[in-house]
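idk why but the lab printer keeps eating my pages so im just putting this in chat instead. protein + flavin-adenine dinucleotide:
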Amino acid sequence: MKKYDVVILGGGISGSLFALNLIKKKKSLSILILDKERQSKPKVGEATADLSSIFLNRLGINHLLSQQQQKTGLRFIFNEQNSSDKKDVLEFASPSFKTFANGYHLNRSVFDSKLLLECEKKGVTVFRPIELNSANFKSNKCILKVSCNGINSEIESCWFIDASGRFRYIKKKFNWADKKISLNTGAISAHFTSMSAPSNWDREDTPYWLKNALGSKSYATTHFLKSNSWWWLIKLDEFTSSLGVVYNKNKISVRDPEAYFLESIKQDAILCEVTKNAQISKINHLDSLPYICTKMHQNNVAVLGDANAFIDPLFSPGLEITSQQNEHLVFLLLDYFKNNKKNTIAWKKYEDKFLKTYLDRSFVYSNLYQFMHSYDLFSNATQLLFFGYQSFAVLPLRYFPSRIKNPLRFYKVDGWIFKKLFKRYHKIVINREKNNRKSSSLKQPVSYSGINIPNGFYILFKPIHLGLIWLYNYIKIESTEFYFLIKRKIK
Ligand SMILES: Cc1cc2nc3c(=O)[nH]c(=O)nc-3n(C[C@H](O)[C@H](O)[C@H](O)COP(=O)(O)OP(=O)(O)OC[C@H]3O[C@@H](n4cnc5c(N)ncnc54)[C@H](O)[C@@H]3O)c2cc1C
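predcted complex ->
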């Protein structure tokens, strides 16, 4: 029987990054990754956010990252009138300045397979393609029966980490329950080659973008916001782009995903132009995106990444929470190997923190779908989210790197403020719909988040700057609503 300290089920991005981080911190550990596929497959999850970028940039895999496309920013595009005239299209954008949080567009099949090779180079054993025939979990070890390329073997391991993604091996095996959530979304996506040149559908780069961003905005993660759905456009290299839609199943019913995907592109003035003459690959459908498992560990078993929970891909948070979980789990496992016992209090805190994060995010996302088509309301809500994210998660990492373990979640007052604000945004949307009005208070066609990471002392002022941008625009929204209210009353 072969013996390992840690067995990881799943050689996707969560499994490989976990193995790399663990072996980096304790070289003597024996780690085995088991994956059912011979080759890494193309996947969604192709853009990194600030925290996942910081995590990746620190892992010592820069030679792999430099082969992927550098992300130049975030863009949110609104076309409430479905106009084909570029001048009617509005945009909220956040160009990426040069910082320690610079991100990537990842071609996942290439990146995932290179990560696995890197694991092997660093001393991790990888078996694939395998079939896991049985697993027997005891209080401090597990015995696995595995067949790999027709050869059967028995494996003993001290720890078992489930990183099997949406297959969710451990959740099924132990019959763990999921939390009840109201968010109810599905996604359809495909890779395209030879898409239209941006000059056919996009505005030219503005002077602000040209002056500050790392590169052209065609390499920014681009979102097209619509009523109860949003599309992503992620350029992976010169020829290939990923295009996909996430839709609110509480409002949009999709019977034939492929037909819905193609028809929606045809009906949308910009997307139709973006995909004109492009070749499309296989269309993928995920019927149900969000889930949160109530448990994250038991005895010497822990779940990681999509095997544990997934909320929504808007703002690209998937790899981000996985990275934070990764740091936390590595810390807990190292503590176990040092003391030869599980620190039950620390594990409980870990589970509670992440569960709270997932629930808070599901609350935020289920509210965002109510007004995501509205330029000024969505931009304003996003600006406030950016303020919280930058002030309490990203900026502190500049000087306190170990804080990356702590996922962002609401405390009492901030949660209450968001609840009230989301209610208010929703009410404004309903009022506008009743009176046949569209987004009106932000007159400029392109507005910017103001996000960058200043050096030294100036970093302290950044949260104030971001907060003031939110407040200024919120006052503009309320003043416009007040103006229309008075106008209606006078009539
Ligand atoms: C529509 C959509 C868009 C997204 N966009 C983004 C984004 O832009 N940015 C972002 O950060 N995140 C995004 N995400 C989330 C991101 O895709 C996932 O969080 C990430 O891929 C999870 O990685 P993972 O390794 O946990 O799972 P996976 O990548 O699914 O890997 C699981 C691995 O386990 C293996 N496996 C499965 N079952 C078994 C088994 N029984 N035995 C052995 N091996 C097994 C599989 O072969 C695979 O290699 C998106 C998600 C969705 C649904």
